[in-house]
Design a protein that fits this description.
With about 325 residues, the protein is an alpha/beta fold. It has one domain (about 45-325): Rossmann fold, CATH 3.40.50. The chain contains 12 helices and 8 strands. The chain has helices at about 25-50, 85-95, 95-100, 125-140, 150-165, 185-190, 195-220, 235-240, 240-260, 285-295, 310-315, 315-325, and strands at about 55-60, 65-70, 75-80, 105-110, 145-150, 170-175, 270-275, 300-305. A hairpin with a 2-residue loop joins strand 1 (about 55-60) and strand 2 (about 65-70). The chain is globular, with a radius of gyration of 26 Å. About 40% of the residues are buried.
């Protein structure tokens, strides 16, 4: 009888585990996706600038190309927009056309917004911007003006008034942030201004995120008032360009520090009108505008019921009435 052959170990029934993509491959894919996104956002920014050409003229001030619009004739009224905005904000509200019936209206794209430059060699605080705009107004032959600031533009308006009190005959401050208070939203909003990491964010990620959040953000800044149909003319794609997102992030990072550095407003001696919406969800009226009114004895405060942050859109009559009071044309 033949011996049975010796059998080896039975072959394993398990198949070799499939290996997923390596960490290096995933990193490569992520970098490629960011590069594609950055290129697409760059193309979108270039297209936005072609479709929204400059509305006005340019001044070259200290190496900065500053875009401005000038309308009408009469006493000078200077308009300074808020964070993330540009000249088209005031244009779409109808305030420029309305004020131009009785005033020489000058509206600036502040540095980094619209079509104005924002050199990275400077920190564009409210004081730095006020110095630049002061030189621009002098170049335009302005010796005296009423200055209206909205939101972040209020800080620039106050700095301009301190820079040259005789030039600023009156101040109209609408929905401003004047006193330091902790705000968690500032941390997130300031991220695109962080060196290196912020550059990657604002080119590849932030424009996409801004487009997704845009409808909710617009409702928030107007709430509880409705968003006017005219605001559709505001060029969203200009606002979500990487360059403008960086300017907006830098101003968010500066906001609380600047308010703390002011140290008070009792030195302002010109007539001051303060407008605030009782429903403002961006800046608290009680801790900002109402407190400012208490500190400036000669100020006039108007709290507008049912109005949010965008006072010039939802309450243009109140804005024009405040201008008339400041300039002695109304009680």
């Amino acid at each position: 009888m033949m011996p049975s052959p010796t059998r080896g170990p039975a072959p394993s029934s398990r198949r070799p585990a499939r290996r997923g993509p390596s960490g290096r491959a995933l990193a490569g894919l992520a970098i490629a996706a960011l590069a594609v996104s950055a290129y697409a956002n760059h193309r979108a920014a270039c297209r936005a600038e072609r479709e929204n050409p400059p509305l006005g003229r340019f001044l070259e001030i200290d190496g900065v190309r500053l875009h401005y619009v000038e309308r009408g004739s009469g006493p000078v009224l200077v308009l300074l927009h808020g964070n993330g905005s540009m000249i088209q904000d005031f244009e779409s509200s109808g305030l420029v056309a309305r004020a131009a019936r009785t005033h020489r209206v000058i509206v600036f794209d502040r540095p980094g917004y619209g079509h104005s430059d924002r050199p990275r060699s400077r920190v564009w605080t409210d004081v730095a911007q006020a110095d630049l705009l002061h030189k621009a107004l002098r170049r335009l032959g302005v010796s005296r003006a009423t200055v209206l600031g909205h939101s972040w533009g209020c800080a620039v308006a106050v700095a301009l008034a301190r820079r040259d009190p005789p030039m600023v005959g009156a101040l109209l401050l609408a929905a401003g942030f004047y006193y330091p208070r902790p705000r968690l939203d500032v941390v997130a909003m300031a991220a695109p201004a962080v060196p290196l990491l912020g550059d990657a964010l604002r080119y590849a990620v932030s424009p996409l995120l801004a487009r997704l959040l845009w409808p909710g953000l617009v409702r928030q800044i107007f709430s509880p008032a409705p968003v006017p149909a005219a605001f559709r003319a505001f060029p969203r794609e200009m606002a979500v360009r990487p360059s403008q997102l960086r300017a907006s992030a830098a101003e968010s990072a500066l906001m609380i520090l600047q308010a703390a550095a002011h140290g008070g407003y009792g030195d302002l001696r010109m007539p001051v009108a303060i407008l605030t919406g009782t429903g403002d969800r961006v800046v608290d009226p009680a801790t900002q505008s109402v407190r400012l009114h208490r500190e400036i004895p000669q100020s006039h405060l108007e709290c507008l019921p049912g109005i949010g942050h965008m006072i010039h859109h939802n309450a243009p009559d109140a804005v024009m009435a405040a201008i008339d009071r400041l300039e002695g044309r109304a009680p």
